Every structure is written in C-alpha cells, then in structure tokens.
Amino acid sequence: MRSVSLAILFASLAHAGAVDRGAVRAAVEKALPLLQKTSPIFWENTGCVSCHQVTLPTMAVAVARQHGFAVNGAAEKQVVKLTADYIGVRSERILQGLTPPGAEDTLSYVVFGLAMEGFPANAATDASARYLKIRQAEDGRWKIRAHRPPLESSAISLTAVTIRVLQAYAPPAQRDQYANSIAQAARWLAAAEARNTEESTLKVLGLAWANASADLIAQAAGAVAKAQRADGGWSQLPTLPSDAYATGQALVALEASGIKTTDAIYERGVRFLLRTQLADGSWFVKSRSEAFQPYFESGFPHGRDQWISAAGSSWAVAALALTQPAIGQQASVGGN
Predict the structure, then answer these.
(1) How far is CA 283 from CA 249, 250, 274, in A?
(2) Residue 175 CB: number of other CB atoms within 10 A?
(3) How far apart are CA 116 and CA 159, in angstroms?
(4) How far apart are CA 278 and CA 284, in angstroms?
(5) Helix or strand run (H / E) with residue 235
(6) pLDDT score of 2
(7) Are 65 and 77 in contact (CB under 8 A)?
(8) At 192, which CATH number?
(9) Residue 248 needs a FRET pair 20 to 30 A away by CA distance; which of 34, 76, 206, 229 works?
(10) Phi and psi (nearest 5°) for 57?
C-alpha cells in the first residue's frame, strides 16, 4: 500500500545515485548458500525449528525466490518438510490446548516460516492457529514468555508474527472469528509504544499484515525511518552500533509500509548492507542474549555469535532481495 504522508516524509531526502543492482544480486547470491546450509545442521543437532536458524532463513529464502533468485530447491523443500512435520507430530496435543515446546513464543515463529513459504493449510496448521487464538490476551496482544533479545523478548514482536500466522491459517469456517482476533491485535499494536528497533519494525509489519489503515502504518513507519543513522543503518538499541539485523528489519518494514526500494532512505540502508557484508557472504551481529544450550557449530560463521548473525543475515537478504522485481504472488513481506 502507498501513503501520501510517507511520500511527503521522504520527498526532501537527497538521492545519492542508484544502487548497483548487480552488486545487490551478487550479495544475495553469496549469502543464500550459507542460510540454506545452516538450517538442517541446526535441526540435526537440536531437533528444534529455531526462529534464528530455521524460520528466518526460511523467510529469506522464500523472499529471494519470489524475487527471481535461484535457490537450492531440494534444501528449501527439506526445511519446509521438517517444519511441517514438527507441528504435524504435535498437532493432537496442540489441538487439545497442551503447550508445545516454547509455547506461543516458539509456535508462532515456527508456523510463520510456513506462512512465508505459502505452505498449504492442513490439520496441523489449523490446530496451531486455534492454539494461538485461544492464547490471545484480553487486550489483544500475545504475551511473551521468554527473554532472549532481540527475537524472543517482546509482546509487540510476538503479536505481529501471530497476526501473520492467523491471516494465513485461520480455518475457513471460522474466518470471521479469526478476523476479529486480528483486528483486536492490530488495535493493541497501534497503541503500543515501541522501545527499540525490533519493536518498531515488527509493529509496522504487524499492522501491514493486519491490513490496518494507511495512516496507522505510515505513522509507525515514520518512527522507523527517523531512527536511520548517518551510516545508513539502524541499530538494535541506541547504545549499540548499526548492524544487519536491525537494518534488514527496518528496510523490510519500510517496504511493507509502501516505501519504494528505490527511495533514498531504502538505498542508504542497502548501501550499508553491501558495505558490511563479509567475504564469506554473511553479516556479523553481536549476540546480546544469554546462552542456555551447549555450543555447537551449525555451518554458519561467527562462533558463539552465529545464531543472531544467521538471523541478521536473513533479514539482510530479505531486504536486498526486495529491491528486485517480484515474480511470485507475494510482492513484499507485507503481503498476505
């Protein structure tokens, strides 16, 4: 969707010349093999469909494919299958309202990956959507249980991701009921005060996924835009340097709000990502979450910072891929 207020907001920004589209394509093509490699290795070591090592790489691969990039189709299908099987074997328990591993914090992200891939609804996604719907708080949000910043630390993030899941997998016979839940969640999101980039960007995405009004989305997007730094990037927190995680998120959110990828603000962010990509195709992001599981190598660089670096690289790839013409039905991450 497009917004007049957003157009006014960015009309005064100077344009520094078009980004080299060849460099963008090369950056995405260099990063994709790493992202597609790490998910199965992580799964084999943990049996976990993690948000940072499976779901976000799944999102990045799906967006890249939808925008004309060649991906490893066999690897993509493998990850989608293991994700679908993960909820499939638990569907009866989930249908009974019994808490799956990680409860709604994890389940929402697991099913989000399937939604981004356009995975068809089945009994397991029905059960997952039902579980998430009944876990909605009276005020419209979903309450976060974990504290593993930045991914699992915010009711705004969880609410936004859950909106996307309900949009994709509401059982057809109950669409109206689920639409009411989504509308209630959008009202809570619109009023929620974002405290950091994770929250401000997911607020934009959640409102876009909920098909909120253009004015509400523009207002939320304006807050994201104002946080861009002089280096073209965004930081997770005001006290931290710009990084690929926050920058990729911000660009994806702005694109979903209606900002063109050829606008100056977007291209400054793209230049930041191109400058900071490493020779191996990854982006380094420093972890700020306390480790709780035994260390192992997942095939992604950066040692003990590999989880958040994979997540950051996923957002960076999605943001860069969005600059290319869409060839699928979904033109942006904000599409339903």
Answers:
(1) 14, 16, 10
(2) 11
(3) 16
(4) 8
(5) strand 234-235
(6) 40
(7) no
(8) 1.50.10
(9) 76
(10) -60, -35
> Would you say residue 237 lies in a domain?
no
Q: What is the structure's pLDDT at 240?
A: 98
Using DSSP, state whether 148 is helix, strand or coil: strand
CB-based contact 253:201 (threshold 8 Å)? yes
Reported as type and span, the H/E element at residue 311 is: helix 306-321
Largest CA distance in the chain: 56
For the record, the structure tokens of 79 come out as: 């990850």
User: Residue 290's closest CA among 195, 104, 151, 149?
Assistant: 149
Residue 1 domain-assigned?
no
pTM of the model: 0.92
Residues spanned by the domain of 203: 18-212+280-321
For 135, counting Cβ atoms within 10 Å of its Cβ (0-12 exposed, 13-18 middle, 19+ buried), the class is middle
The packing angle between helices 214-226 and 244-257, to 10°, is: 150
**What is residue 63's predicted lDDT score, i.e. its pLDDT?**
97
Number of folded domains that form the chain: 1
pLDDT of residue 148: 85
Contacts of 110 (CB under 8 A, 6+ apart): 49, 51, 55, 83, 86, 87, 128
Indicate whether 208 belongs to any domain: yes
Q: What is the mean pLDDT of each run of 10 residues along the chain (336 residues)?
A: 44 59 97 97 91 94 97 97 96 89 92 97 97 97 90 94 98 96 98 98 98 98 98 98 98 98 98 98 93 87 96 98 83 63
Closest alpha carbon to 136 in 174, 177, 89: 177
Query: What pLDDT, on a 0 to 100 scale, did the predictor assign at position 15?
Result: 45
